Amino acid sequence: MKKLQVAVLGATGMIGQRFVQLLEGHPYFEIGGLYASERSEGKTLGDVLSLKGVRFQEETLNTRIEVLEPKAVANRCRLAFSGLPAEVAKGTESALAGEGVAVFSNAASHRMRDDVPLLIPEVNPDHIELVRTQATFANGGFITTNANCSTTGLAVPLQAVYKEFGLKACYVSTYQALSGAGYPGVPSMDILGNVVPFIKNEEEKMEQEIHKMLGTLKDGRVRFADFDMVASCARVPVVDGHLESAVLKLGREADAAAVVSSLESFKPAPQELKLPTAPVRPIIVRREDNRPQPAADALAGEPERARGMAVSVGRVRESKGYIKFWLLSHNTLRGGAGGSVLNAELAVAKKLL
Amino acid sequence: MKKLQVAVLGATGMIGQRFVQLLEGHPYFEIGGLYASERSEGKTLGDVLSLKGVRFQEETLNTRIEVLEPKAVANRCRLAFSGLPAEVAKGTESALAGEGVAVFSNAASHRMRDDVPLLIPEVNPDHIELVRTQATFANGGFITTNANCSTTGLAVPLQAVYKEFGLKACYVSTYQALSGAGYPGVPSMDILGNVVPFIKNEEEKMEQEIHKMLGTLKDGRVRFADFDMVASCARVPVVDGHLESAVLKLGREADAAAVVSSLESFKPAPQELKLPTAPVRPIIVRREDNRPQPAADALAGEPERARGMAVSVGRVRESKGYIKFWLLSHNTLRGGAGGSVLNAELAVAKKLL
Amino acid sequence: MKKLQVAVLGATGMIGQRFVQLLEGHPYFEIGGLYASERSEGKTLGDVLSLKGVRFQEETLNTRIEVLEPKAVANRCRLAFSGLPAEVAKGTESALAGEGVAVFSNAASHRMRDDVPLLIPEVNPDHIELVRTQATFANGGFITTNANCSTTGLAVPLQAVYKEFGLKACYVSTYQALSGAGYPGVPSMDILGNVVPFIKNEEEKMEQEIHKMLGTLKDGRVRFADFDMVASCARVPVVDGHLESAVLKLGREADAAAVVSSLESFKPAPQELKLPTAPVRPIIVRREDNRPQPAADALAGEPERARGMAVSVGRVRESKGYIKFWLLSHNTLRGGAGGSVLNAELAVAKKLL
Amino acid sequence: MKKLQVAVLGATGMIGQRFVQLLEGHPYFEIGGLYASERSEGKTLGDVLSLKGVRFQEETLNTRIEVLEPKAVANRCRLAFSGLPAEVAKGTESALAGEGVAVFSNAASHRMRDDVPLLIPEVNPDHIELVRTQATFANGGFITTNANCSTTGLAVPLQAVYKEFGLKACYVSTYQALSGAGYPGVPSMDILGNVVPFIKNEEEKMEQEIHKMLGTLKDGRVRFADFDMVASCARVPVVDGHLESAVLKLGREADAAAVVSSLESFKPAPQELKLPTAPVRPIIVRREDNRPQPAADALAGEPERARGMAVSVGRVRESKGYIKFWLLSHNTLRGGAGGSVLNAELAVAKKLL
Known about the structure:
The structure is a homotetramer of 353-residue chains. Chain A is α/β, with parallel strands linked by helices and 353 residues long. Chain A has helices at residues 14-23, 45-48, 58-61, 70-76, 86-98, 149-165, 188-191, 202-213, 256-264, 269-272, 294-297, 333-349; strands spanning 4-9, 29-36, 65-67, 79-82, 102-105, 142-145, 167-176, 216-218, 221-223, 228-235, 242-250, 283-286, 311-319, 322-329.
């Protein structure tokens, strides 16, 4: 298969750099262009790199950043990965779709649109069919979004449990990493030895998105799942990896062992389809009494290409009719660039590209 | 009033050192002796100090640590503040009570005993009467306990809300500071840039203690409060100050404004009695969108003697029939040594000492 | 004495907020106005506060920030404390001096000017006389500067040693706190669990300024001190307090004990004059084997008003003909706002105000 | 080549676990046994793992820890890697050498012995010949040591410069990572947001060891190099990677460019011999103005097996007749287990094994 040319939008940002990382040596895709705002025009990726400890090929580091012009992008690239900030994403992504580009976006702008899939291949792979209802689809242009980073980590195990036991309520509190705020992001003086119990719009996103993703696609539209979803979000001094404390009221009674079993036997589409960025085990249930931890588990996932794509779950336990567990996922891989790359791989598998 | 001589048990530990700090210049109490295990015998407090940035008087720093012998303690001290580790506390505290010493303990050993008050003066001041039912009371000896550090911070605002609106359920996730694990406590390599989603026995304590404290004393025994209490506890890289995310299902509907009003109008016993270590405002409701934060608010509370004794509450908001807020309290002051000192001050006010 | 009205320039910055803190209840000075750029115009100090854990009076928090207009400032204020960024400071401070305002600046712009004292009252109090050589002095306007934060902490003990033993060389490496970079300053992702071995222009400042300060004022100009001064500067994940490792080659041989003695017997002008912000002991020599430490010693200094104004020195030791020690000083108090406030107090004592 | 069986001594410690990591898939060596104190007897490596984020094979994790008995070790293993604590290392390592085992030790106990090489293959490969002078050599037993972690990182670039320009003095200040203190090591409350300017015996080791390593082997003994070496050592809140600020007075004048050139053209023995754990470039000179940094560069080194084995040098600059630079090396790889593994590889190349 000839590799598809892809554009990386917002290439200078935290998510953009992760897109680039994941595209190095990718079996389906090849970087066709790196795009960012005028501020970075003409600089190389190496000049603006803020990601630490990741190795890039010399050639990639020397690639120059270009200013995004939709037609020019469409001439060169079949698809685009978007790490654009929300305020820019809306118009730009629509314009690109209008030019026939398939856009896989990490931005929130289009997530809740009726005709846009809010997609996690492990959770709701069939929702990808929604793109066929988009006006631009005839010309090959469409928009697919991955979920918010905190929602993603939660959605994967929640779907496994929801499918088997149903769900009345989910109460979640997050311990979110700094990279989720981009770069420069959180000032060091605000977070060193501190926790900030506020992330703008984050709780709202979690409380909305989960119902769409766990919803059912029928007759070309998604019927939202229905259960209480209550989120509280905080920033902690951790570089990568969102940890979440989840308390569930299941639809029917089940003990911790049954929940563990549902998590471990979860074998969704990407694993069936052996998508390149899909981890062998999408959910890794840990038995230790103090895991998962960001420093140890953020990069969980095998093989090498899927590092950071597994969701780790630990301390599954019951208390007074509730199920409690902790979950961890890498916010800029699983919950960011990796999610969109997996979405695009699913699109290839579904022959949408 | 002649000052009462007090013993500090476990004086070398994190809580012990906080007891000493609070006793400097205390209007009712005076250090009669510092006690710890044989390992520290003969050393001065200055030799073993692990608390950073707190100023002690020269004389205090030069006080020698003694090995605890109950009779000797009883000869010298009317009361004892205990920062002993749980495994030692049980026997030692009982022995001291047997010798006629009034023990105010931070240890968990006796907290759930039927005849021992689990006391927060702002929450359940009348429970102090339980000490009269203790066998040793006739000789002046008795045991009073303060609650677990995480439970304390929660209990204060919860009581304000519970009294006014009733409560069906409380879901809480904690972001707990390092000093809660004592010294040396958590190894730096385990927590720098990390979160550890496990604190031994902590969730169990929170889920048990809250019902006793919010319970009703009647006919010499406490009838426990009845609502769902579900806790998830984690350690974060913060030195002092436990932050908690709370989600409440109230007994009757109320909006965020009504909850704020119940918190701000809360005027419990210690403030009525003007106890020396009681903060003027026991609950400080913050209006900013990103508070309370450990680095900014752990030491909330006025006057000077009550620094670290106020509970800060912020981001009171509603979502789908639930009330959410964040709370913060200083774990070794409000939730530790300060709690027991306040208990002893209440005992003085109630003429139990 | 009627209090002098002072302007705080750059009041929204890290140094500006420290000026405000030090002016609360100051015996000589009173805030006449808070000034910053247009971006903050009309906001209150409370709106823009980034300093954590410092208490301000309600009235101060409600003071509105104004845009700086030199004539208007001069009408209201006898002196100005400047926490302006270097690029703005140069012109603005000159303009203010031209209007007859005595400017005490933390900015680097005028430090190396021949007619401007680079002043630390403990080190070179006589240099303040340089202001008389400034063109604007006749009208009461002049500029005095405090040194760079890292230079200040070093200059105090270095002067004590230099006076007694002479100096051939000083090799210093710094471990500088985040607050030195202002706010928002260092992005958290750059420094959490990391050290950044670069601070723009910092090494150059240290290598230049020290010679001027330890120089001799004669015939209206400063003859620079002459010894090798080599600095290497790094940023570490610490909020406040610059730690420095110093290696000295003395002018004549001396052992560690003699050096300690010279440091402890150092009794410079501000202490003789009992200036309000001068610490009783300007240099505190620690005997522990692992001090000074930022978390424990940044706020060293008594009385209360002088907290953070003492320089802590520790581990004074010899090795192969060199003297080594560690020193620590609070970078935004001793090495920033506190330095300029002390300079202004010296000016009052010298009847220059 | 049939793989040699090796014993890992102190397998539960930080260095021991790094030995195990490096032995996985090693082309010359194979784990013959994991040894530690009685406390860990019978546990598996997985039970005691404190290293985070490193992947071990399932089989390795399930290997049981044994108690060390020299004869039994000698029966099974040709060589031993020792991560033993200094107080245990001395006797144990001697006993093993007596039994004919070649010991490659990270412990300090034998480093300064006349007949023991203090070996860094990039620095003094010929010193390995010293083992022939050991009494046990006839039976195949001998002891080789790697240097202290801070000394190692310095010795590599220092040797490059020393050989070319000579050296009068080296002043170094360290910024040392937490993993250097082992596990549990530094209590989190001592180091979070702090720097501790003291590491027991570290300065002494640096000041001694460097002269032996840069010394000349002649007639079976090492003549020590002669220049002023002054070290100041501090612990910083970084997990892995010792950063050091170095100031050099060269033997003959040279500018920064010449020094860079000497560092980059340095091609020592391990690279000539293509030892498996030798990085292609032993010294990586960085051109950015703010590197090397622990978070970005601790794991420098290629190929994969040599990650963490390169020394990064940056900010090479002149000031007043001195050369200054910063260097960084991974303290438990390059400066610990990796150093000893490379030593053993050199021994294989020299047919000493």
